[in-house]
Design the sequence.
């Protein structure tokens, strides 16, 4: 099977290398078509992606992507946002669960965030009215709202989940979030076997921090989905443990929720777990459940070893020491 591998910026190449090695140890047979993209590549070449990358994504339908940086205030449009719009990856699936051996605030978190990935304030419809005023358009449509809520319910029913909660601020944004909530309520009626409720985004943040176990599947417009993803990552040990999949009808782009971590780039201490967990999602989606299980077990073992774990979770390991520990776990499981 062919798949595209985009290393990206900052810690991207370090963690993408880890995935390549782990894929080999697992004997996945995946042939990675590697492409450069990101702010670093743009500086060198004046282009956002290497030629052939978008064709390769179209051909394979699968990409695993490292983080790409988006310089603030330079007119540089996020590569992630462009890829999501280009490949119509309308759903961003972000599972969040506690990991044995990883110290965190909670030990029993198990929820899934379904983030709408194509519209809302991410549409890029903003402009300066004058020196002191800027306008941004929050675009919410009924078709995109219904599609993402239906995705959340379908995901819930396929995966034995029991409740879908719609996230909004319709008390203030009566038209935009009001439309999202209305669409959610309508779609919910098609799924009588799955419970449905809704929560205002600010209350949700408080509830997530005090008791995240009350949530199962959260479905949210783009911006709220983005923000609560990082919050939820914080509940299970940090950004190093949050994978995601950008899902469209023909293409899935897997990535970590975190960014390019410029503060630690090049130091060899990045935690590759989130990208490896995104790779685990890829394996499961492509009929390689046994390999995904093997990777999961090896990850948990390496994370519980303070000499292998990276400094972000209190270990003394480096990216390559951690990767070697994961590979050792895989080889042990295979025996
Ligand atoms: P960030 O997620 O890169 O970093 C936030 C903090 O978490 C930093 O202290 C960083 O060292 C730490 N961190 C993140 N991932 C880590 C890992 N795997 N191992 C250990 N520590 C880790 O967020 P920040 O600094 O706001 O953004 C940096 C750049 O990344 C920006 O240009 C932003 O646009 C971009 N970005 C890209 C994303 C993507 O490509 N999917 C997502 C989010 C941000």
Sequence:
């Amino acid at each position: 099977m062919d798949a595209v591998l985009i290393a990206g910026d900052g810690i991207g190449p370090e963690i993408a290398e880890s995935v390549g090695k782990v894929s080999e140890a697992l004997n996945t047979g995946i042939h990675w078509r590697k492409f450069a993209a990101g702010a670093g590549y743009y500086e060198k070449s004046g282009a956002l992606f290497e030629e052939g990358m978008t064709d390769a994504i179209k051909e394979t339908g699968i990409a695993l992507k490292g983080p790409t940086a988006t310089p603030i205030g330079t007119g540089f449009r996020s590569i992630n946002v462009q890829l999501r719009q280009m490949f119509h990856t309308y759903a961003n699936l972000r599972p969040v669960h506690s990991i044995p051996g990883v110290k965190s605030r909670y030990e029993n978190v198990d929820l899934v965030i379904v983030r709408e990935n194509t519209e809302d304030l991410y549409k890029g419809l903003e402009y300066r009215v004058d020196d002191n005023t800027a306008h941004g358009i929050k675009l919410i449509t009924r078709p995109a709202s219904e599609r993402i809520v239906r995705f959340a319910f379908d995901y819930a029913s396929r995966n034995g989940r029991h409740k879908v909660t719609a996230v909004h601020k319709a008390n203030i944004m009566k038209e935009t979030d009001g439309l999202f909530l209305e669409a959610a309520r309508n779609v919910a009626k098609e799924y009588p076997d799955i419970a449905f409720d809704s929560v205002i985004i600010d209350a949700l943040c408080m509830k997530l921090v005090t008791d995240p176990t009350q949530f199962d599947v959260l479905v949210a417009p783009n911006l709220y989905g983005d923000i609560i993803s990082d919050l939820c990552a914080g509940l299970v040990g940090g950004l190093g443990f949050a994978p995601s999949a950008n899902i469209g009808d023909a293409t899935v782009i897997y990535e970590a929720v975190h960014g390019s971590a410029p503060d630690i780039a090049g130091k060899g201490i990045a935690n590759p777990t989130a990208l490896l967990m995104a790779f685990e999602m890829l394996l499961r989606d492509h009929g390689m459940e046994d390999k995904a299980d093997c990777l999961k077990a090896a990850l948990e073992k390496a994370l519980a070893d303070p000499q292998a774990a990276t400094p972000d979770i209190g270990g003394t390991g480096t990216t390559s020491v951690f990767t070697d520990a994961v590979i050792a776990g895989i080889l042990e499981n295979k025996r």
User: Anything to note?
Assistant: Residues 11, 67-70, 80, 239-240, 255, 258-264, 270-271, 274, 312 surround NAI (CB under 6 Å). The chain has eleven helices and twelve strands.
